[in-house]
Design a protein that fits this description.
10 strands; alpha/beta; Rossmann fold
Length: about 260
C-alpha cells in the first residue's frame, strides 16, 4: 500500500475476528474507509455488523486483528503527557438514539461537550447550532419519552454533530421509521458528510437509504465479507450475493435461516 493510499484511509480494519466462546461471529474481516466518504455495512440480522461498529468505537475489546484510525492502532494509547497532532474525534449514533431518559433534549445533546469540559459559551453555541440544524427548536426541554422515534434519532444526530467529529458511526439510523422519515435522515447524513467532511460507517437494513448515502458498500455473510466495492457496483445486479440481498430471493448463495 502506498503512502498516499494510507493517508486517504481514515479507518483501516485488518483481519478482524470476534468470537464468543467457540462461536466465531466475525472471521478475519478486512476493509477500509477513505477520508470524507461513507461506507455502508449490510448483512442479515445477527451477522455481526453492530459488533464491528462497536469494536471500531472502542466499545468492544475482545477481538483479534487490528483497527486503525488515522494510521494508529486504537488499542495503543499514547504515553502519559504526550499529545497526538493527528487526534481524531469519534461519534457513535446508537440505533435508538441512546438518549438518557432523565435528561431533556438540551442536556442530552450537551452531554458529550460537558465531559470535554468546554467553556459554557462554546457548549451553548454548539448545542444551539445543532438544535437548529436538526429542526429541534422548541423541543429543548422535552424528555426522550415525549419524542417520536424520528425526533429521538435527530437528537442523537445533534449530539454527534456537537462533537464536531472526524469519524461518525451510525447504527441503523433509519430503523423503525416510515419511508419519508427514513429519506429525511438519509438526507441529513449526506449533509453532515458534505458540510463537516466526516468519514462515516453506516450499518443499515434500509436499501433505499444505503443506495442514497453510500460511496462504498460491504456485505457480510457468515462472518465474512462476500461483497466489497462501490455503491454503483453493488446495485448493478452483477454480483450474485448483492443481487440476492437486494431482491430478497429465497434461492441464491445466502441461506434464509
Amino acid at each position: 500500500m502506498s503512502i498516499i493510499d494510507r493517508v486517504k484511509q481514515v479507518i483501516n480494519v485488518k483481519n478482524l475476528s470476534i468470537s464468543f466462546g467457540r462461536k466465531i461471529v466475525i472471521d478475519s474481516v478486512s476493509f477500509s474507509a477513505e477520508r470524507g466518504t461513507t461506507l455502508v455495512m449490510l448483512g442479515k440480522n445477527g451477522s455481526g455488523k453492530t459488533l464491528i461498529l462497536k469494536a471500531i468505537a472502542g466499545l468492544l475489546n475482545n477481538y483479534s486483528g487490528t483497527i486503525e484510525i488515522n494510521n494508529k492502532d486504537i488499542k495503543k494509547k499514547l504515553p502519559e503527557g504526550k499529545s497526538d497532532p493527528d487526534n481524531f474525534r469519534l461519534a457513535y449514533v446508537f440505533q435508538k438514539g441512546g438518549l438518557f431518559d432523565s435528561m431533556n433534549v438540551y442536556e442530552n445533546i450537551a452531554f458529550g461537550l460537558k465531559r470535554m469540559r468546554l467553556d459554557k459559551s462554546i457548549i451553548e453555541e454548539r448545542v444551539a447550532g445543532s438544535i437548529e440544524r436538526m429542526g429541534l427548536q422548541g423541543s429543548e426541554n422535552k424528555l426522550p419519552s415525549e419524542l417520536s422515534g424520528g425526533m429521538q434519532k435527530r437528537v442523537g444526530l445533534a449530539r454527534a454533530l456537537c462533537l464536531e467529529a472526524n469519524v461518525v458511526l451510525f447504527d441503523d439510523p433509519t430503523a423503525g421509521l416510515d419511508p419519508i422519515l427514513s429519506d429525511s435522515i438519509a438526507d441529513l447524513l449526506i449533509e453532515i458528510k458534505r458540510d463537516m467532511d466526516t468519514t462515516s460507517i453506516v450499518v443499515t437494513h434500509d436499501l433505499q437509504a444505503a443506495e442514497k448515502v453510500a460511496d462504498s458498500i460491504i456485505l457480510i455473510y457468515r462472518g465474512r465479507i462476500v461483497f466489497s466495492g462501490r455503491s454503483e457496483e453493488f446495485f448493478s445486479g452483477r454480483d450474485k450475493y448483492a443481487c440476492q440481498f437486494i431482491e430478497g430471493d429465497i434461492e441464491g448463495p445466502i441461506d434464509i435461516f
